Every structure is written in structure tokens, then in C-alpha cells.
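Crash report, auto-generated. Payload:
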Amino acid sequence: MKSYRKELWFEVPQRRALLNITAQVESCLRESGIREGLCLVNAMHITASVFINDDERGLHADYERWLEKLAPEKPHSAYDHNRTGEDNADAHLKRTVMGREIVVAVTAGALDFGPWEQIFYGEFDGRRRKRVLVKIIGE
Amino acid sequence: MKSYRKELWFEVPQRRALLNITAQVESCLRESGIREGLCLVNAMHITASVFINDDERGLHADYERWLEKLAPEKPHSAYDHNRTGEDNADAHLKRTVMGREIVVAVTAGALDFGPWEQIFYGEFDGRRRKRVLVKIIGE
Amino acid sequence: MKSYRKELWFEVPQRRALLNITAQVESCLRESGIREGLCLVNAMHITASVFINDDERGLHADYERWLEKLAPEKPHSAYDHNRTGEDNADAHLKRTVMGREIVVAVTAGALDFGPWEQIFYGEFDGRRRKRVLVKIIGE
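Recovered output after restart:
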């Protein structure tokens, strides 16, 4: 069994953004030399997500509005967590909806994807350097 | 390390439905000959889910009502994504709540499940052929 | 390839609680002797979750309030599932939001975590003995 590990670093200038990281994960997979196995991609921070969906601008605007409805950022005082001096309680909840991680099959040296699957980094508390972990195991 | 891959195809005649696919995944596992490892089951489409919960009709009606409350299908014009000519923005959000994938332990040649765990395909934009991927690695 | 399996048992005296189980999972990993691979941790019950987030009391109070808003426990009669004699339909929905499972990378014999990642058992229908599965594969 082979295993491969890489950290991807991001610094999003806004508070929230969705970044397509598919090409970076594909590049990790090529570097790993693994042909058959599983590829885990997870946010290493608890106010960010890794998820799979569509690279369509309108949908991303819908996600932003929808997450603000389900877990509004403001008023910051609505959240007990923000009494610790943080203002990012909503980011913990938004990341919960979107998910921490994905596991993707690796088949014949490629990410084994359906027609529209793309990997996104979901940042919900940006403006600082944060990391995603790529771990691939297989042969 | 062994690896196994199979696509399961579905064509749901309605827009939305929950299908119990546990027996089909168990059949994949038998075919794989893998006794110890991990089994990934994921929707290959971004308007569908694979998730684990109870095979109880009342609960499935609750899911339908609850998802319609969290991410209503209509009005279609409420979503930017639908300006592309689609009408399925809600399906992308519903699938986000329900999840893209599950990873199940394989122990002694069986899916290592608690007493009520059943695997479902969650279709949120049906009436066409769509796929689920089963990937099993182990020994 | 090595594989390791362990069940962790919990009996939460309240209906709902979030328990930090990171140390127990780390102890499993040490016992497994696995240095590189993947660690799956999943609830074996469909009214409970395993998820990763912050061990901060205020945030946990926010989760409780937020989940009660998204999927209120009462009135029990609001849910078809509860016509079966159950009163825990809300727990199935809360667990759906929080997730069934996590997959964590194992690197150099440790859980490969970012700075604040902690593993939680989320109980949404307690007052009875329930289980979490830890399955680790690798070398």
C-alpha cells in the first residue's frame, strides 16, 4: 500500500468564498503515482469546508444566500461562541451544513467523477492563511 | 490490496424519491471478495445523495417536508442557478443537506452496520438515468 | 494492509449531548499500530452523529439552539415517523445535519489534524446504550 500526503494553503481576502480546487487535487494524485485507492480531501480548520458540487456562479450566489438564511453571520451577539471574543460562530455552522471532507475513488490513476463533480474549498471565515489536507492511499 | 468498482444506475420516474440500495451494495461487496477494508458509495451527480438512515415510510415523508422547508423547490425564480435554464437549484441544496457519500467499514466480508443502518439513494432531480459509484478497497 | 476495528459504547443520561471522543479514537489508533492510512469513525445508530468541530462550550450551546430551530423536537406529532410510537423523528433530522461519520488521515501514527479539530459524538436520542465504530486501515 502506498500513501501520499499534501497540504494545500489558501488565503481568501474576503470573509466567505468558494474556490474550485479540483486541478490542485488532480495534481496531487498524479504526484502520488497511486492508480487505485481512495483520496480524502478535508478542511484542517473548523470554519471551512471541502465539498463537491457544480462550478456555476449562480449556484454559488444561491449557496451564499441560503447559508446566510440557515446560519446568519449577524448579529454576532446571537451566538454564545462569540462571547469568547470570536465573531465566527456562523462559520462553524455553515461549515457543518457544507461538510468537512470528501472521499473520492481513485480509478486508473484519475479521480473517479461523474460528469459535473468539482471539488470546492468553502471558506466561511477567511482573511488568513488556512489549510486543506489531501491524503491518498492505494496502489 | 484489492480494489473493486461498480456503477449502479437508477431512473426515478418522479422528481424526488428515496431508494433503499443496501442489497445492491451488499451484492457488490460479495462480488469484490474483499473481507476487510472500506466501502465508499457516492452519488456521481450533484443533485443526488447517498446517505444512511432508517427504512421507515413516515420518516421519508418527514424528510420530504423538511427538505422542502429548508430548500424549497419553488418558486424556481428564487434561485440564480435557475437563470441558466435549469430548474433544479433546490436539488443541489437538498443534496448538500443529505450528503454526497458514505464510507462504510467492511469487516469479515460484510458491511459493518449498526442495527438499523440502511443505505439510501436520495434523488432530488429525477426523471433521467443517473449513477451511484461503489468503490471498495481492502483485502 | 492492516485493519483494526473497535466499538466505543456510550450511555448519555440526557436526550441530547455532545461528547469529545478524540482521546478514545487516539487510543484506538495507538492500539492498531497503524502508521499510515485512513481512520473511519461512525455512529452505528441513526439518531446520533460523529463530527469534527471545536471543543468550546458556547459553540455547543449554539449547536443545540440551531438544531432545535432547524429540526425542533416538539410537537412530536409534527412528524409522521412518530406515529410508529417513536418520539425521535427530530433526532434523525438533527443527525442528518451533523453527519454520520468522519474519515481522518493517519500520518506517522497520529490523527492528522489541524489546530482545533476535535472528534465529537453527537447524541440526539440518548438515555440508552449506543455505539460508535472505529475502523482503521493502512500499514
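Post-recovery validation: Residues 57-70 of chain C form the longest helix (14 residues).
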